[in-house]
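Pilot study result, target chain (472 residues):
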Amino acid sequence: MLFNSFAFFVFFPIVFCLYWFVFNKSLRWQNVLILIASYFFYGWWSYRFLGLLVLSTLLDYYFGFQVASANKKKSKFFLWLSVINNLGILGLFKYFNFFITQFQQGIELLGFHTNPVLLSVALPIGISFYTFHGMSYVFDIYRGHQKPVKNYIDYAVFVSFFPLLVAGPIERAHHLLPQVQSRRTFDYKQAIEGCRLIIWGMFKKVVIADGLASYVDSVFNNYQFENGSTLVVAAIAFSFQIYGDFSGYSDIAIGTAKLLGFELLSNFKFPYFSRDIAEFWRRWHISLSSWFRDYLYIPLGGSRNGRAKAIRNTFIIFLISGFWHGANWKFIAWGFIHACGFLPLLLLNRNRKHVTDIVAQNRKYPSFKELSQMLGTFAFVTFAWVFFRANPGIESALLYLKHICVSLYHNPIQLPRLKLLLAYIIPLILFDWWWRRDERSLKKMYYLVYIIMGIAIYVKLGANNSFIYFKF
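Predicted structure:
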């Protein structure tokens, strides 16, 4: 089920009413309701893969008890069993065809011909997210940060909570499970904050991202016939499309959870106001980047064991992060580009310069230096997005960039299209700048603004365009 569908606008009010007016006196039945609703939400897309979600949940629920064993050998054995199970599920459905195809091409270079057997099955939606939920739970038990959950319903809700099930944020057991296990009461302020986030998230997705999508698709699919300036504008448009699409989903997820009494992890903190690549990755898809930091980068040694290993670990993280997004070399190239952008900051010990502060923290406007830093970071990120968006692969991205270089000055930007794009992009920038200190609750606006947003959402809602990150 899509957030931006009429089905969801029927589904969620029913769940909300049952949750707060029928089962509000029983935590157990509230959690049962959430689990049933989550499986219905997931099964609306494809009931065939519900079994895979349930199997994955059951296995990690069992592994959690075994990993908690005082016997270290047994604990480590089941930890690796959980990792193999989750990565095996992910690898089979998401990467099997990629590796088989690459193997075939390698064999054919040696003069042999093969007829590989490929899986002709759709990628189960949300698989990259719920497998990471399961692994984080088992990892935290192994480290002593989390105790095994005895109640299966509670654990299943943690893995399958429908607001975050198919595209995150990627939650941590120690953050979400205590909320699942604790009695929840309706909080008016929290609910209002949730409604604001839902409206703003819907507006970013349905109006801004989907409004940019048709232009971006037409240019990227026919880049050979466009002039260089048009290609640059389309790349910038995609930067805002994917931001509006994915951060819009995250806002809707966080807002929906707030209406049910939950607080989810932040996933975006105005990343296009970042002053360098390190800051960008602290603000973009935060739950994924922090997951890789805590469960891969730090266990590999982080930056504690010398400069050479820090560089190695940085490239490992970014390449795996790229590959997490899809079984295609273009995503690996995207990750490699970001690693190269991060490397100078690491070598100069400037990668932790902007950890807690925000741009123009005590001012209305950025300084010239901050503005130039933000524009430089945005330009780098947009360059990398070309590899992410290009279809079908890395060759198309290289040709796209080559075409920009060859024809950039031959034709002027087509102003009607540029004006249309600015009509989508400028409101997003202005609202984000206004809210940059308070991304959770959003600053109060006149209700008329939310009404206008709601009308715009309703007008555009019928398209039911899927979210970009559903593919991952």
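One observation from the pilot: The chain has 17 helices and no strands. A full batch analysis is planned for the follow-on phase.
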